[in-house]
Specification:
Largest sheet: 4 strands, mixed
Helix content: 25-40%
CATH class: Alpha Beta
Number of helices: 4
Structural class: alpha+beta
Distance between the termini: 60 Å
CATH topology: 60s Ribosomal Protein L30, Chain: A
Strand order of the largest sheet: 1-4-2-3
Shape: elongated
CATH architecture: 2-Layer Sandwich
Oligomer: single chain
Radius of gyration: 22 Å
CATH superfamily: OmpA-like domain
């Protein structure tokens, strides 16, 4: 007489998905991406040294990742002036990242001038949010 043979339960496998730090909404690399500037200025303030260092070290460790540095200005000033100011801001952040060893080929500085405001108000609070350079990582 044959006895039934118990079979081990079939095991399922779950694929492990690794999300890059820049896509992980809980990671500081994903959270801290904007450098803000004073009115009519393109100097990176010492307040942003930690952000620049964090992003710089990450980009050096991930040489295959490239970013855009998008410079922005508030609504005051002519379109031409704001485009130039946004470009200077983007290039200032690029230079700060280079100090940590990030290669030029990994970064593209561009300016939106006043065309991509973060805040839509017409006061100092809104303008302060729009005077910035954003580090933009690829969507995947």
């Amino acid at each position: 007489m044959e006895r039934p043979v118990s079979q081990a339960p079939s095991s399922s496998t779950v694929a492990t998905v690794t999300v890059p730090a820049y896509l992980d909404s809980q990671n500081p690399i994903s959270k801290e991406r904007s450098v803000y500037f004073d009115f009519d200025d393109s100097s990176v303030k010492s307040d942003y040294a930690g952000l620049i260092q964090l992003q710089g070290h990450y980009l050096v460790s991930k040489r295959s990742v490239s970013i855009k540095i998008e410079g922005n200005a508030d609504e005051r000033g002519s379109p031409e002036y704001n485009l130039a100011l946004g470009q200077r801001r983007a290039e200032a952040v690029l230079k700060a990242l280079e100090i940590y060893g990030v290669k030029d080929a990994q970064m593209e500085p561009i300016s939106w001038g006043k065309e991509r405001p973060k805040a839509t108000g017409h006061d100092e609070v809104a303008w302060a949010q729009n005077r910035r350079a954003d580090l933009v990582y690829p969507p995947r």
